[in-house]
Write a structure and sequence with these properties.
By secondary structure, this protein is mostly helical. It contains ten helices and no strands. The chain folds into two domains: about 90 residues, Orthogonal Bundle (Rna Polymerase Sigma Factor, Chain: A), CATH 1.10.1740; about 80 residues, Winged helix-like DNA-binding domain superfamily/Winged helix DNA-binding domain (Arc Repressor Mutant, subunit A, Orthogonal Bundle), CATH 1.10.10. Helix 2 crosses helix 3, helix 2 crosses helix 4 and helix 4 packs across helix 9. It is globular and about 55 Å long.
């Protein structure tokens, strides 16, 4: 994916150059917000998680060794940080699809489940880590080895998580078919 391989001046980033870091934030902020949203964070919680992520990236930049693409490394930090934020925030819980749709005040679940927005809400109901993996694979289009590197799981585990997520979503959405 081109964003993960975005050429950046690493020496400027490692030296703490404000303009270079502002460019990095500009390039990655939408993806980071989307990743945070995929685990069910909303509003100020997304802002807080994104701030924590970019703060962690900034502090860790001097130690970035370039063994992987800069974008992959940022996703690794984002993945771990967003999961920690999700666990810390007791106000958010992962329920089943029915609870998610009910909380969204959906009057006709069959109709609403067909929209992209509600499908992604349902994905978030799968659980933090699973939702992020589904988002990285289906929405961001990352290859399995890249997701494995970001999450620290073997490729086989990523395949299993995706298989189970598809099955759970299929079963949940099937309950609402007429």
């Amino acid at each position: 994916m081109e964003l993960l391989d975005t050429p950046m001046d690493l020496s400027s980033l490692r030296a703490g150059d404000a303009e270079a870091f502002a460019e990095l934030v500009r390039l990655f902020q939408d993806r980071i917000f989307s990743l945070c949203q995929s685990v069910g964070l909303r509003g100020a919680d997304i802002d807080q998680a994104a701030a924590d992520i970019f703060s962690a990236v900034y502090l860790a930049l001097p130690g970035f060794d370039g063994r992987c693409a800069l974008g992959t490394w940022i996703y690794q930090i984002a993945f771990r940080t967003a999961l920690r934020q999700r666990k810390r925030d007791a106000r958010h819980t992962h329920g089943h699809l029915t609870e998610t749709l009910a909380a969204a005040d959906v009057s006709d679940p069959v109709e609403e489940a067909d929209t992209s927005e509600n499908i992604w809400r349902c994905v978030a109901a799968l659980g933090s880590q699973t939702a992020m993996i589904v988002k990285l694979y289906y929405q961001d289009g990352l290859p399995l080895p890249e997701i494995a590197e970001i999450t620290g799981h073997p490729v086989g585990t990523i395949k299993t998580i995706l298989f189970r997520a598809r099955r759970e979503l299929s079963e949940s959405l099937a309950r609402y078919k007429p």
